[in-house]
Amino acid sequence: MQKLEVFGANKLKGQIEISGSKNASLPILAASLLSNKKVYLNNIPRVKDIETMTSLLKSLGSIINLKNNKLIIDNSKQNKKFASYSLVKTMRAGILVLGPLLAKFGNAKVSLPGGCAIGTRPVDIHLNALSKLGVKYKIVQGYVYATAPKGLMGNKIRFSKISVGATENLIIAASLAKGTTILSNCAIEPEIKDLVNFLIKSGCNIKWIAQRSLKITGVKEISNISYSIMFDRIEAGTYLIAAAVTEGNLKIKNVIPKVIKTEINILKKIGTKINIKKNEIHIIGNKKIKSINIKTAAYPGFPTDLQAQIMVLLCKANKESTIKEDIFENRFMHVAELNRMGAKISTSGNKAKVNGNIDFAGAELMATDLRASVSLILAALTAKGKSVINRIYHLDRGYENIEKKLKKVGAKIRRVN
Ligand code: UD1
Asked: Which domains does the chain have, with CATH numbers?
């Protein structure tokens, strides 16, 4: 099994190009199932989750051509409606094929996503909302058997809780439903706006009618489309924190800074120097980091997907900081590993107290999920000595060319078998 070796304590300097967003690509790939024509996508990140989603689409009959960061999907012969456990178990976003398959065929059998280390992550909100569009479903032996006997019918749906995936599944399904759907209490993550823009460009009738509400009038079919995926805001945030934690000096390129203004404001508040240009953020780290209290929240709040990374930086603050994880119930697995590197973090339920003034020391470490893995790299980059990070397949799910990008800016990092 592959591992990463990191020799720490040198400052990162230079520039990093941010890739296309994994979390925007996945729902857009699922939405491509609505089409019977060709879909051309640019800026697709080459990460494992994209491979898993393209394998899932192939198993459903899509013809996929992926070259570098360009993807062509031909759904003219797509005819299968069965998403197997083996493909959905490793990636929860597999459930996003349910909405489009129901919209297109009126029935589907999709595996429930497997258990996930960061929490139970049920799909009840997806299923409740789909039932309001006329879907009947039962769950048998880990599979959702769903049918829409009269086809999907538009309706008014208020999500009981903000869910990124459920909002995406419903937007996609409602795009081909009969009549009009009003979705309220929607997630408004930038990736959802990217999905909506993709669907509008392909001929769907979707309008934002309030900050968290959408009006979707179903269309009969969607047209050929060429679309470029937005930048990965979590990757951008991770490298901004990498600069801060190593007291480095990085230009983060190919971004739209206003999309991540919450993160930028927090980094400024705790003492890093940030200059913003149109598609670039220049960050200069500071030895003195100020403590802060952070809680994760739905967009435009601070993202749960950057919680593990900011925790590493707060270990360097002048005093104790607190972090409250309000999205997932079990997302502190990185804490035990960071403590093995010298951090002093204690948790109680969804709250963490992070002591400051920590000098990390290299160690042998175990990655537990995608963002936890990258937080260990950040700690290793600032630690004295060598760290070895095991189980990096988690990391490969979502970071394109991470060693290459870090090496280019001066990190001592290598992959070993
Ligand atoms: C997406 C992102 C993930 C990010 C998360 C929150 C993708 C592929 N993944 O995940 O990186 O961390 O948003 O920003 O875009 N919930 C339910 N029932 C449901 C659905 C969700 O109880 O049917 C709960 C979840 O357990 C969680 C919360 O709602 O506690 C938010 O989850 P959700 O927004 O749905 O996250 P994902 O779409 O899975």
From this structure: 3-19+231-416 (3.65.10.10), 22-228 (3.65.10.10)
